[in-house]
Amino acid sequence: MEDLEPPAGRLLRMVREAERIVVFTGAGISTESGIPDFRSPGGMWTKAMPIDFQDYVSSAEMRAEAWRRKFAMEPTFRAARPNDGHKAVAHLVRIGKVRHVITQNIDNLHQASGIPADRIIELHGNASYARCLACGLRHEIDDIRAAFEETGAAPDCRSCGGIVKTATISFGQAMPEEEMLRAEAATLDCDLFIAIGTSLVVYPAAGFPLMAKRNGAGLVIVNRDPTDLDCHADLVVSDEIGTVLGPMIALNG
């Protein structure tokens, strides 16, 4: 009879039965909030290739181009609001079902949904602010934009004169060691791992679902399109994320 149970219903039952859930999110959870999926056909990376970290560091021209692209996208990011998918995950954190949210997203929407920062593990950083690559000082996007519009050049750190970059992980840049270790620890501790809105092709981050599965956790993949890891999952739900997760907002602890 289990095969006759609707996938969304089975997911809800698995969530009820689990005690230590890790949610792993990718771009798909945010497309329903209007944030573009950069890798999809028609996405930003099909129109302009991403700037490699070494090119950003070595070229003032590339830094200026990176900031131009950032400011062009800023209205889209600022207009985005957490959707039912984000709200459902936040609710599961609030009632103690979800221990950690590991995310590949840089849009700050998990924080905006009310999830405490210490429960969110950002593997690719956060685009809502910037940091100096030399001294680590935080810089606000609005301040950088004001300077950029005045000079047309990427601004330097106001403290040490170093290179300032959005607090994200670019192509060619090393993954954040602390966040990777936290993600691994959370993955090995969970009894249910739910991958939401991710194509599961970007490594090493995409290795976490299999790590959880091999450690005995249940594995659920919620994604509109098939992934290479579907064959390893206990449950695959191919539907709109907000529709699938929305009912969980009413779940009791």
From TrEMBL:
Top-rank lineage group of the source organism: Bacteria
Listed CDD domains: SIR2-fam
The protein's Enzyme Commission number: 2.3.1.286
Keyword line: Metal-binding, NAD, Transferase, Zinc
Single GO MF descriptor: NAD+ binding
Keyword ATP-binding on entry: no
Top EC category: transferase
Residues annotated for Zn(2+) binding in this entry: 132, 135, 157, 160
Domain Deacetylase sirtuin-type stretches: 1-253
N-terminal signal peptide: none
Annotated catalytic residues: 124 (proton acceptor)
Protein name per UniProt: protein acetyllysine N-acetyltransferase
Species of the source: Microbaculum marinum
